[in-house]
Amino acid sequence: MTTSHRTDLTVRTIPDADLDQAVDLTALAFHLKLDGKGRAQQSEVLRGALRIGAYDDRTLAGMAAAHRLRIAVPGGQLPVAALDFVCVAATHRRRGALRELLAEFWRHCAAERLPLACLWASESAIYGRFGFGAATEAYRLEIDSGRPLRLRIAPDDRPLRLLDPADAPAVLGAFHEEQLSAGAGRFSRDAAWWRRHVLGLEDADDDEDDYGPLRVVVLGAAGEHPGGYALYRTRGADGHAPGAVDVQELAAASAPAAAALWTYLAGIDLTSTVHAFARPVDDPLLQFAADRDQVRVTRQEPCLWLRLVDVGAALTARSWAAPVDVVLDVRDAALPANDGRFRLTVGRPGTAASWTPTTDTADIALDVRELGACYLGGMPLRRLVQAGLVTERTPGAVRRLDAAWETERLPFTAEDY
Ligand SMILES: CC(=O)SCCNC(=O)CCNC(=O)[C@H](O)C(C)(C)COP(=O)(O)OP(=O)(O)OC[C@H]1O[C@@H](n2cnc3c(N)ncnc32)[C@H](O)[C@@H]1OP(=O)(O)O
């Protein structure tokens, strides 16, 4: 527990007894209309999370919560504290409450040996100052499906079947876990996470939009290992808008499998547009689409913001594509254990990296947020040098480090939990 003289708030763990207050605060800050079911659902999610509150006397004035998840990193998975519900009451904003909450949050991460923290930002301008870097990016895609989808490859011709969403964790869980090794940035999911955060099976009913219920389509016959799947919703045409398909998630084991799923989605009768709100920047669809006027990128945006809480643990746990030996001068204003000069040594690919303090001259100087942006392999460091954010002191050092942390696929994060 800490009491901040700057904010006059006491920062401490939120006990179960205060869950009602926590739900009230999230409703206030995120402008939510929660009925009884919505409150119960929110409370249940918070109950299982790491929760830190900023109290004004006994009133909860700010909070941050985190799900304890596992995230795919190059070559494996690591525990991650996935921040959520970060909010401060309008009466207490811009007095340093968030800063105090995060200071306490780092202590919890250290105590629980969580080397990484991540979040989806409500506003991109907030979290860089706390050491988070935009580690995965996504495209929004739009397909003109008023005409047949034209592709340059033949789709997988296995059957497609619709699945009851309640069966999705059992049918698709193992497939999803296999996909984690294909690209970093995705979360491992247990059945509860699938139900609550992916399929929304425990959500309170809301009529906020005119899309129908979530549908699950799977490639491959029952009993066969799936070749891929898509989660989507549809909307019929009305006087103002054409019928549309909204793709929440599409995962496929191969390009032909992806082609089969996109062809299915684009062919749904009484719809003429497919929207996909979060697709990997290296989505193969963009290559195998025969007509790029038909498949368009409408937006590119950051998805997951990543913070290396324990830089050494994070760097030595991931795999590397090439040997490298560089001294990094890392600035970390919030976590002194990360701050300073360290030698990163990577031997043959497949061998463990080492990260040791050194007094040797630095080859590269950078802020910890830049390490967060590059860690999963989505951002080459040279782009941050070009942007004036990273200093290369030894010519060639950045090129060598970029070759070492490059990954086969770009990282991607499917769910905005
Ligand atoms: C992971 C998630 O949950 S994302 C959701 C984030 N929450 C929301 O958007 C809900 C509505 N907003 C809020 O609850 C609050 O305004 C918060 C949580 C964003 C900020 O809380 P505050 O207590 O006001 O922040 P605090 O006073 O500690 O500010 C810390 C720093 O962040 C900056 N900051 C805070 N909010 C913003 C913002 N919206 N945009 C840019 N900078 C911001 C402050 O200027 C300050 O900068 P400095 O210390 O470098 O000078």
From TrEMBL:
Known partners and oligomeric status: Homohexamer; trimer of dimers.
Lineage, top ranks: Bacteria, Bacillati, Actinomycetota, Actinomycetes, Kitasatosporales
UniProt-listed PANTHER family: N-ACETYLTRANSFERASE EIS
Keyword Transferase attached: yes
Keyword set, alphabetical order: Acyltransferase, Transferase
Pfam families named in the record: Acetyltransf_17, Acetyltransf_9, SCP2_2
InterPro entries: Acetyltransf_17, Acetyltransferase_Eis, Acyl_CoA_acyltransferase, Eis_dom, GNAT_dom, NAcTrfase_Eis, SCP2_sterol-bd_dom_sf
Residues of the N-acetyltransferase domain: 9-154
Protein name: GNAT family N-acetyltransferase
Residue positions binding acetyl-CoA: V86, C87, V88, R94, R95, G96, A97, L98, R99, S122, E123
Positions annotated as active site in the UniProt record: Y127, Y417
Family membership: Belongs to the acetyltransferase Eis family.
